[in-house]
Amino acid sequence: MSTYVNFFVKDKNSETFIPLGEYSRNSIYFKIFEGYAPYECVRKIDYSMLNKAKERCTEEIESLINERNKIDELKRFISSLERPLDEILEKYDELIKECDALEEERKSYTAALYRLLTFEDIMSYADNELYVGIECYEPTVDDIV
């Protein structure tokens, strides 16, 4: 059974929590908020935490781009080698698969960054309050830590 991190906006009038999304343990959101989000309760997301999350996404994106550039350099080097063609093609295929995986991860972090920017917009619109929690699906005001 997977564990989920859950995001909510709190309705100021009714004090109810409106779900914004839930993401599994192997998602980027879980990795980013794991040390911040409490278990079976919720914590308010402030701008400081949101900025840290955005910075982490940006750093990961830059790191993945750097890794991809290194692999591209290695691909160029391998293609210039005078070795048996099957050896070169095998290594080249491995690098292409690695590049594809890095590109997918970069796209995931980019999408996460855009989602975080959307969360920021929600927070700034009419001073909405966002909350995050792990394994907390229907929080009440009593669940806020």
Overview of the molecule:
By secondary structure, this protein is α+β, with helices and mostly antiparallel strands. The chain has one domain (4-143). 55% of the residues lie in helices and 17% in strands. Strand 1 (4-10) and strand 2 (17-24) form a beta hairpin. The longest helix is centred in the last third of the chain and has 40 residues, at 85-124. The chain is elongated and about 70 Å long. The two termini are 25 Å apart. The model has no long low-confidence stretch (mean pLDDT 91).
Helix content estimate: 55-70%
How many strands?
4
Mean pLDDT: 91
Please count the helical segments. 3
Number of domains: 1
Shape field:
elongated
Structural class: alpha+beta
- The fraction of residues in strands falls at 15-25%
Largest sheet: 4 strands, antiparallel
Task: Name the poorly predicted regions.
Answer: none
CA(first)-CA(last) distance: 25 Å
Briefly characterize the structure.
The chain is an alpha+beta fold and 145 residues long. Helix content is 55%, strand content 17%.
How is this fold's topology laid out?
Elements: E1 4-10, E2 17-24, H1 28-33, E3 43-45, H2 47-80, H3 85-124, E4 129-134
Antiparallel strand pairs: 1-2, 1-4, 3-4
Helix pairs in contact: 2-3
List keywords for this structure.
145 residues; alpha+beta; four-stranded antiparallel β-sheet; 17% strand; elongated
